[in-house]
Design goal:
3 domains; 456 residues; MgtE N-terminal fold; disordered N terminus; mainly alpha; CBS-domain
């Protein structure tokens, strides 16, 4: 109970802070605004910028643009980042981006239009600009875009003492690093050592003797989704990135890999809901309409298919009016059962737990689940038809339709995403529409067809 109250208090504090920020913006009280924002975490500042309107955002940035730093720009949602950057004076942008590491810079730049990209690139020193442009030359969504080029490297023949002296004497090190990467004379990574092992080992210990067993590398052109899977599968903290010749070009760290996983999960959720993978709470009315209309149009077309099926049995419905009231039950149960199987299948495909090796076993399991669920609910609906409506045969029709549709729903929920995945399409993108159409059409056809044969 205490935790619940604590959660509520935190939410109330956040809302109060937002109200105070808006009040300071409305009264143009720069001193008050600075006091409210200066001690906040960059992620909290980004949240405030995302939650307020575009006009309030512009006013806030005009009052407090000096407080925007690289960490805030990195945390801001892609949907408003360009707007924020364009609202800031060039010198503020320049100061903000100079403190960022290459992976954060690339993450910001790749979603911006050319003018905004140039504004940031022009603010960088020559060496940093070259590094960022080289990263941007890799395919979008690849490890080359995800990696940071700032790496801590040591020759593979070094000892702990030599590595420690090097680290202590280095004038610059990345803000976050977890391993010292070992390389051969041609800059091919051969292993890595955690900082903890270095600190706990004697000075004469060879680095290669305390290297981690988990060492592996990824190609710069490898898809970032595959990189995130490797991190999750093998519990990595960081992973060196190599070019086509096997030479070290950067490193991916766990925070970036987990961000990719979060983005993949978010995209799947949005796609399953049919609202577009780029939807954001800060989008305007017309942008939101543009993203949703295509999916609503698809749903309209599939609903018309269901209507055509129902139309073929207008005589049956006219003769037994109770069928019209019971049809949505069959379709709804099938749709919900299909969504359950579909959600499990899409998640399993994303995590690679569902593969060609175990697909048939999973399909058999889903068919069995559909059969058992169908029998349970067939018994309930059969009793409704018999005892409540006083029509034993209608109860039989309800029961048979329920069994068939739940089996079809369970199979559709697993087979449709498998089929789309086999075709090289994103299972999360169109599976929901296919499965819903399948369960509606089959549910209506079976229910009304059985009623025509058994009741008339």
């Amino acid at each position: 109970m205490a935790e619940d109250r604590s959660g509520i208090d935190e939410e109330e504090a956040r809302l109060m802070r937002l109200d105070e920020v808006l009040a300071a913006v409305e009264t143009a009280d720069a001193t008050r605004l600075e006091a409210l924002l200066d001690d906040l975490h960059p992620a909290d500042i980004a949240d405030i910028l995302e939650q307020i309107s575009s006009d309030d955002r512009a006013s806030l940035l005009a009052l407090w643009h000096g407080g925007i730093d690289g960490d805030v720009l990195s945390e801001i949602d892609d949907s408003i980042r360009e707007e924020v950057i364009e609202s800031l004076p060039d010198e503020v942008v320049a100061e903000a981006v100079r403190e960022l590491e290459s992976d954060d810079l690339v993450d910001i730049l790749e979603d911006l239009e050319a003018p905004a990209q140039e504004k940031i690139l022009d603010a960088l020193e020559d060496a940093d600009r070259v590094a960022v442009e080289q990263a941007l030359s890799y395919p979008e969504g690849s490890a080359g875009r995800l990696m940071q080029r700032e790496t801590v490297v040591a020759p593979e023949h070094w000892t702990v003492g030599e590595a420690t002296d090097f680290l202590r004497g280095a004038e610059w090190l990345p803000d976050q690093f977890y391993h010292v990467i070992l390389t051969d004379p041609r800059m091919h990574p051969t292993g890595y050592v955690t900082l903890g092992r270095i600190l706990s080992s004697g000075r004469d210990t060879r680095l290669k003797d305390i290297a981690e067993d988990s060492f592996r590398t990824v190609q710069a052109t490898e898809a970032e989704a595959d990189v995130a899977y490797i991190f999750n599968q093998y519990h990595l903290i960081s992973c060196p990135v190599v070019d086509a010749g096997g030479r070290l070009v950067g490193v991916v760290t766990i925070d970036d890999a987990m961000n990719v996983q979060d983005e993949e999960h978010e995209e799947d959720m949005l796609r399953l809901a049919g609202v577009g993978e780029e939807s954001a709470i800060s989008d305007g009315v017309f942008e939101t309409v543009r993203q949703r209309i295509p999916w609503l149009l698809v749903n309209l077309l599939t609903a018309n298919v269901s209507a055509l099926v129902i139309g073929q049995f207008s005589g049956t419905i006219g003769a037994i009016v109770a069928l019209a009231a019971l049809m949505p039950i069959i379709a709804s149960m099938g749709g919900n059962a299909g969504t359950q199987s579909l959600t499990v299948a899409v998640r399993a495909l994303a995590t690679r737990d569902l593969t060609g090796a175990n697909a048939m076993r999973v399909v058999r399991r889903e068919a069995a689940v559909g059969l058992v669920n169908g029998l349970v609910f067939a018994t309930l609906m059969g009793a409704v038809g018999w005892l409540v409506l006083g029509m034993p045969m209608l109860g039989l029709v309800l029961g048979l339709a329920m069994v068939i549709n739940l089996i079809v729903a369970a199979l559709g929920g697993i087979l449709v995403p498998l089929w789309l995945d086999r075709l090289g399409l994103d299972p999360a993108l169109a599976s929901g529409t296919f499965v819903t159409t399948l369960t509606d059409v089959v549910g209506f056809f079976v229910f009304l067809g059985l009623a025509t044969v058994l009741l008339l």
